Amino acid sequence: MAASTNNTLRVLFTLMVVCAAVCTAKRTVAKTGDLAPAPAPLGAGGATAAPEGAARASRTFDISKFGATSDGKTDSTQVVQDTWTSACGAMGDATMLIPKGDYLVGPLYFRGPCMGDITIQLDGILLGSNDLAKYTASWIQVSHVNNIVINGSGTLDGQGTAVYTKSKTDVVKAMPNTLVLFYVTNGTISGIKLLNSKFFHINIDTSKDITVKDVNITAPADVENTDGVHVGGSSNVRITNSTIGTGDDCVSIGPGSDGVMVNNITCGPGQGISVGCLGRYKDEKDVSDVTVRDCVLRNTTNGVRIKSYEDAESVLTASHLTFENIRMEEVANPIIIDQYFCPQKVCPGKRSNSSHVSIKDVTFRNISGTSSTPEAVSLLCSETQPCSGVSLIDVNVEYAGKNNKTMAVCSNAKGTAKGSLQALDCLV
């Protein structure tokens, strides 16, 4: 009887110990499970994970470890694409690393949504393939991604110099933008260099809360459609502290843009900083709340410009536009509003000397320097849609030559001038 009782006690004690151990394990999981998500599977080549128990996992996906070759000749497109897929699908924050070296790649589609915030760390050089048949509209497109940073000391080299001489027919229409943000929210492009894009260098489309800062963009001065940064259909965009020299607009702001700040930009060569072209296509949206401030333009063919097509396909308004604290250095056409824009005489509608684009509440303030042509100010507004609310405040740009006088040419531009050169006051 005593032996039976002892055996029963031993069994009960053992059960109590096991139960206590299980409960302790569950409490441990409950405490740490909220801090560190379960690690995602490693892709081919692996990834570097954050220390176990970190508050938010952060892992690095190195394209060289996935198999990318840094000789500048071997096509690494699929490897880079696979690296993105792994980084985007990883739990927690992730970094896709492009280390030092030259990597040749064709079209890349970095599509989300991703499982966490993501960084593309560009320390090396991505070289754009010159096999034009591979492209549709973009070289590198980031789409449907929230919370992305693209930074580093590396370069996106579109290698456009090898194809700029192609015939300006269907080949040109297929030329790819270098870097496109499409349906991106809360994105930053910082520190990188962009070189010789085949078309626009950066195109921000249908996105919001975007910052472009501390970038350097370079392309030949004689090649059109190599805009530095283009913004269209996007809101709350800031472009700042950058040097841009191309064959087209340093910064262009297209239809549907709202809340755009451009500041501390050094522009040249190029065609200046523009709002437009407006009205080229049907169903374009208004442009509003654009500020260009604290910029220097050197030897550009235009300064600050608003341009709309002579016979626009859309009815839209460009309003609350401010250009201030800008230095012009030998700029051909420092201040322009052009509602008769019609490049190469190819206009979208029938020529009727009218415009469907309304331009109003435009301020040019504290603009100084020199013009390389006598016409320092040119405000050419439509007779049927006059520009209204135009202000020229402390505008003092003078013709640098000696064979003519500084002058302004205005038509149908209504507003006021204050503190500006008398020769530039042509508002009614």
From TrEMBL:
InterPro entries recorded: Glyco_hydro_28, PbH1, Pectin_lyas_fold, Pectin_lyase_fold/virulence
Pfam families cross-referenced by the UniProt entry: Glyco_hydro_28
Subcellular location(s) of the protein: Secreted, Cell wall
A Gene Ontology molecular function term of the record: polygalacturonase activity
Secretion signal span: 1-25
Group of enzyme by EC: hydrolase
Keywords tagged on the record: Cell wall, Cell wall biogenesis/degradation, Disulfide bond, Glycoprotein, Glycosidase, Hydrolase, Repeat, Secreted, Signal
Primary localization: secreted
Family annotation (SMART domains): PbH1
Catalyzed reactions per annotation: [(1->4)-alpha-D-galacturonosyl](n) + H2O = alpha-D-galacturonate + [(1->4)-alpha-D-galacturonosyl](n-1)
GO biological process: carbohydrate metabolic process; cell wall organization
Keyword Ribonucleoprotein attributed: no
EC number(s) stated in the UniProt entry for this protein: 3.2.1.67
Protein family membership: Belongs to the glycosyl hydrolase 28 family.
Entry-linked PANTHER family: PTHR31375
Function summary: May function in depolymerizing pectin during pollen development, germination, and tube growth. Acts as an exo-polygalacturonase.
Protein name, per record: Exopolygalacturonase
Species this chain originates from: Zea mays
